[in-house]
Amino acid sequence: MLDDKKRTVYHGIDPSADSAHAGNMVIWMLLRHLTDAGHKVIFLVGGGTGMIGDPKPDSERILQDEKVIFGNVAKIKEQAQRLIGGSSKVIFVNNADWLLKQSLITFLRDIGKHFTVNELIKKEAIAARVGSEQGISYTEFAYPLLQAFDYLELNETHGCDLQVGGSDQWGNIVAGVDLIRRKKQKTVHALTAPLVVDKATGKKFGKSEGNAVWLDPEKTSPYVFYQFWLNTSDESAIDYLKLFTFLPLEEISALEKEFNQDRAGRSVQKRLAFEVTKFVHGAKSAEAVAKVSALLFGDGDVASLSTTEHEILLENAPSYGEFADKKLMEIVVGAGLSSSNREAREFIQSGAITLDGQKLEDPEMKLVITKPAILKRGKKNLVVLTATAKSNFKPQGFWRKWFRHN
Q1: Most confident option among 194-198, 208-212, 284-288, 400-404
Q2: Strand ranges of the sheet holding 319-320, from the earlier edge strand across to the other edge
Q3: Boundary residue ending a domain (290, 314, 338)
Q4: Strand pairing class (353-355; 358-359)
Q5: What are the residues facing 197 on neighbouring strands?
């Protein structure tokens, strides 16, 4: 169908938050491919539908204040302009421009007349709510009509004949296909992409799973964003390269061969993390967080970091500064790398403790730190020694999960 002629394609997102997240990126990457192939893309931010909310299968949505919704619209639009492309190939629209002008009686006569309750209650989320003790409000029950009206509006004003979205939006998208067929006697199309699922865990990623990885650097730092992709399971890494990067398939095949020969090296995850971080946050941020990550999980000297990289290190790694006049074994305990002086002594004497990659073997020695340095126990347990009076580290995001796991 896409090879037949150039299409006008639309995708919509409701501004339920002030940022898109990693789960949205599959469709955004699809839109980018479509624009690169010469198709016209309409990106709709639902300032109108966002006031209602797509029905969830388990609970009623909390209605947001209009000012919050319109603020979210502006932020998501900015992200989409930057990532999908702000050229003439992409048209940005807000369905508040037409939905807020609709009178209830006109909408019910012109749109509602084309839907039956029998059809609506078959939709998965609505069916789950109708059959539950909580039930569903008429507000959310009518949501498919609003999204269908969006498709009709864009078909009439822009000649849009293809709507794309995640597979969880199939029912809403088909509602628009049916509405246009009934009102205009025209055929339009629907295309959905499967929700991304980690093959190792069976869980999808996105905000609904409670592990949202946001595209906004203020909500998810570039370093934590990079770590999210770096921690992709071996089973999903190649698929994610195809979905979330623009690397040629031939290059991905070559990377897969290298990866299968040495999975412990995690070459695919490193490339995936770098490419996606570069796409979302820019090349400089990607290079900086990749260097800091390599330093933390490999060997190296903190002194080699630039000012920006040094800031990233201190913002994201655990730090410890209370080591003046303390013995090495006491520092190891204080930094959380061991539970007692006796255990710390054993770690040190066995060669498990290093400072910037150099083994420290005297439990009684005192450290003089004139610049930040990385104290490690083994390869994974580490802390940044600083010259500050005390540690202010509170594990957040990636590091909280990392500490829990280790």
Answers
A1: 284-288
A2: 319-320, 381-385, 373-377, 353-355, 358-359
A3: 314
A4: antiparallel
A5: 204
- Residue 102, Ramachandran bin (φ over 0: left; ψ between -120 and 50: alpha; else beta): beta
Q: What is the DSSP letter of 304?
A: G
Alpha helices in 94-210 (DSSP H): 96-99, 104-110, 117-120, 124-130, 138-141, 143-158, 170-184
- For residues 84 and 27, what is the distance between their CA atoms, to the nearest angstrom? 10
User: Residues 58, 182: one domain?
Assistant: yes
DSSP-based three-state secondary structure for 246: coil
> Which of 314, 330, 365 is a domain's end point?
314
Query: Do residues 383 and 336 lie in contact, with contact meaning Cβ atoms separated by under 8 Å?
Result: yes
End-to-end CA distance of the chain: 50
pLDDT band at 10 (very low <50, low <70, confident <90, very high): very high
pLDDT given at position 384: 87
**Which residues have a Cβ under 8 Å from the Cβ of 299 and sit 6 or more positions away?**
354, 356, 357
Can you say whether the dihedral through the CA atoms of 242, 247, 252, 255 is positive or negative? negative
What pTM was computed for the model? 0.83
> Which CA distances in Å does 100 have to 52, 109, 198, 308?
12, 16, 39, 46
- Whether the pLDDT of residue 69 is over 90: the answer is yes
CA distance 150 to 287: 41
| Beta strands 162-166 and 8-13, pairing class | parallel
Q: How far, CA to CA in Å, does 274 sit from each of 31, 287, 293, 295?
A: 21, 7, 11, 15
| CA distances (Å), origin 300, targets 29, 48, 229, 333, 395 | 35, 52, 22, 23, 23
Residue at token pair 């020695």: 365
Residue of 18 and 211 predicted with greater confidence: 18
The tokens of 303 are what? 């002194």
Shared-domain flag, residues 303 and 337: no
Residue 163 shares a structural domain with residue 47? yes
pLDDT in tens, 82-93: 898 755 578 999
Tell me, what's the pLDDT at 370? 77
Q: Is the Cβ–Cβ distance between 172 and 147 less than 8 Å?
A: yes
Based on the fold, state whether residues 191 and 229 are members of the same structural domain: no
Using DSSP, how many helices (H) and how many strands (E) does the chain show?
Answer: 18, 10
> What does the alpha-carbon distance between residue 342 and residue 42 come to, in Å, rounded to a whole number?
65
Q: Are residues 285 and 334 in the same domain?
A: no
The total of structural domains in the chain comes to: 3
